[in-house]
DNA sequence: AATTGATTGTCCATTAATGAACAACTAGAT
DNA sequence: ATCTAGTTGTTCATTAATGGACAATCAATT
């Protein structure tokens, strides 16, 4: 299905990464609309033509970042389930939970969206994505038929999002494994 | 004197930096002779041909790093004197002292040489370079003619080197400005 | 002794990034 | 109102890095 040559050249990945890092760094210093493309390529240490080869506006670059983060968020949430049949977070070991590693990985971006007022829309997007993921868990295993799936999905997804926010506000002083342990401890204290 | 086109293409600088970072990182994990070129380019995320375009052996890469560090060390030591006539460390303000920023800048490299037994020769090289720099200070200003210049140069250079070692052993928990303040405080407590 | 898997050094055609130039536009300072 | 310095979008020839191939070498396994 996918093309035989559907890998992406490393140079492209490196250039895009440099541009992404640069715009995130600049947005921590000043407002998005004040960040110029010349600023971005200057910090990214790239020729301006390289920017235009990949993007047209700053907005495209930002969209690309958001896409990447969401893709990685979904992958990180799903990764532990790859080789097992169950679909129950509480059954996972704490070191199998990868979502907080994802938050660490994109620490600069998350710091940005939590503080910034530009990307409040993305915060909702995050919540929706997590909720969808949790929904698939819930639909997979039918525990108590009296429980509203939407409600429990919302409950868990916002709980996870809340922990993410706490992690970010703390300045990332908690390790991913600690966060995962805490998540499990909290869940088990409810369910046992 | 220098060629009109004597700048270096950014791509070369980036590739070399990636190779340098990679070999330093690998040498923190295993012995130098066990680090393969494939290891280096794998971590540096570069094609193997790129390594061979710039270097022939691993040793060349290591030599290049050492050259760069020493060049930066000298520049960092001299920078404060650029626009002033005096040549007396004790006359500088603490925030003018740049040498500890240099150590921070090459933190990974310094951690490596302090621990590793491969690069003990480089430790001597560092001392000699610093001593030469201090010597120029001492020759510039003739304070007490009874004082042996070689001796005072050795004294100060090893003192600075000692502080660098202490900074590295501490895991870089002291800021550059703090280090500089301490250096000045120590000097002044002797001279006043 | 034969085999497997990895590294090494070298090659090449293709592609991405580069520096430099350009005219057009903008914002601030004089 | 003019001047200055900067950004923008685009173009182009040149250069660096790429992926992929190759035979040769080496170490550990069988």
From TrEMBL, chains A, B:
InterPro entries, sorted: Homeodomain-like_sf, HTH-type_Tx_Regulator, HTH_TetR, TetR_C_Firmicutes
Pfam families registered for this protein in UniProt: TetR_C_8, TetR_N
Domain of life of the organism encoding this protein: Bacteria
Species annotation: Mesobacillus persicus
Residue ranges of DNA binding: 36-55
Gene3D superfamilies per UniProt: Tetracycline Repressor, domain 2 (1.10.357.10)
Domain HTH tetR-type: 13-73
PANTHER family xref list: ACREF/ENVCD OPERON REPRESSOR-RELATED, TETR-FAMILY TRANSCRIPTIONAL REGULATOR
SUPFAM superfamilies, per the entry: Homeodomain-like (SSF46689)
GO MF term list: DNA binding
Protein name, as recorded: DNA-binding transcriptional regulator, AcrR family
Keywords: DNA-binding, Repressor
